[in-house]
Design goal:
Largest sheet: none
Shape: globular
Distance between the termini: 39 Å
Order of helices and strands: HHHHHHHHHHHH
Length: about 290
């Protein structure tokens, strides 16, 4: 009896693998994945641009990806553009699903633990984009209205942690440390150029390759800075929960922004986010559906 129990789970896993292999062979999945990279690149260029304007006191507040969607939908033909973005983000999620189950064809396979962690990273990356895809779909269908600064979208998981204060702030500290770990991982990708495993470098000209590498290095470093700031704030908010409750998280952010180094930190992050968006736009043309080891 004990030998027969795992068989249904094994059968479902084999079915997922076969489905993923069929999707990997579909040109439509490849086109949607490229559209997803281009759509996300456009969003990050908007986010980085608005952050740079905010750093020099021009253009209002900093926008996140959902705020960028709100800005797009307010433009002429904005709903059509956001519909394309939604389709692209769905293609990005589908690519991550494929990468979870399909073995890369090239490169030297790493140790089993690294392979498991990499599949887990693909799954988490796909899940992290579900919220963006749903927000875009709601805008297209008219089920939600986001202001151009993304005020409604700002009530996300970080805000819930600060409002609920689970485990007397300790859960917020733990989440903040995890976010800091993600920042360190982005710094590692920037320094080691691990992001090139997603690209078909052999199809690039030397000039395009140099531009892509430069944007990728600066972009992942910029994302690392952004996640480092977010993680540090969450750790601070969880540790000094009474002070955050009294002053408000927004006031603490504005206090940092008012410091002499705050504007420079924001400009550095803005340049990095813009570079990351440009990297995604370039990568869309030379994307490898199944990343190499």
């Amino acid at each position: 009896m004990s030998d027969e129990k795992p068989q249904p789970a094994r059968g479902r896993l084999d079915a997922f693998v076969r489905l993923s292999e069929q999707l990997a062979a579909s040109p439509w999945v490849y086109r949607l994945a490229r559209l997803g990279y281009a759509a996300e690149g456009m969003l990050y260029v908007i986010v980085g641009g608005t952050a740079a304007l905010a750093a020099v006191n021009v253009g209002g507040r900093v926008r996140g990806t959902r705020g960028a969607l709100g800005l797009l939908v307010a433009q002429p033909f904005g709903r059509l553009v956001v519909a394309l973005v939604a389709a692209g983000i769905c293609g990005y999620i589908l690519r991550r699903f494929v990468q979870v189950f399909v073995e890369p064809a090239g490169g030297r396979p790493p140790k089993p633990i690294i392979r498991v962690l990499r599949r887990l990273a693909f799954a988490l990356s796909g899940l992290a984009h579900v919220g963006i895809a749903l927000a875009a779909l709601r805008l297209v269908l008219g089920l939600a209205v986001l202001s151009s600064d993304g005020q409604k979208a700002s009530r996300g998981w970080a805000t819930l942690l600060l409002v609920w204060k689970p485990l007397d702030g300790w859960l917020t500290v733990i989440v903040g440390l995890v976010v800091v770990g993600v920042a360190i991982f982005y710094f590692y990708k920037s320094a080691s150029r691990r992001f090139t495993m997603d690209l078909e470098l052999e199809r690039m000209s030397r000039r395009v390759e140099r531009a892509t590498l430069a944007c990728g290095i600066a972009g992942y470093a910029g994302r690392g800075i952004g996640f480092l700031i977010m993680g540090a704030f969450l750790v601070y908010a969880g540790w000094y929960v009474e002070e955050v409750e009294a002053r408000g998280f927004g006031n603490i952010l504005r206090t940092l922004e008012a410091q002499p180094f705050g504007a420079w930190l924001l400009i550095t992050a803005a340049v990095g986010l813009t570079a990351y968006g440009l990297y995604l736009l370039l990568a869309a043309w030379y994307l490898r559906l199944i990343a190499a080891w």
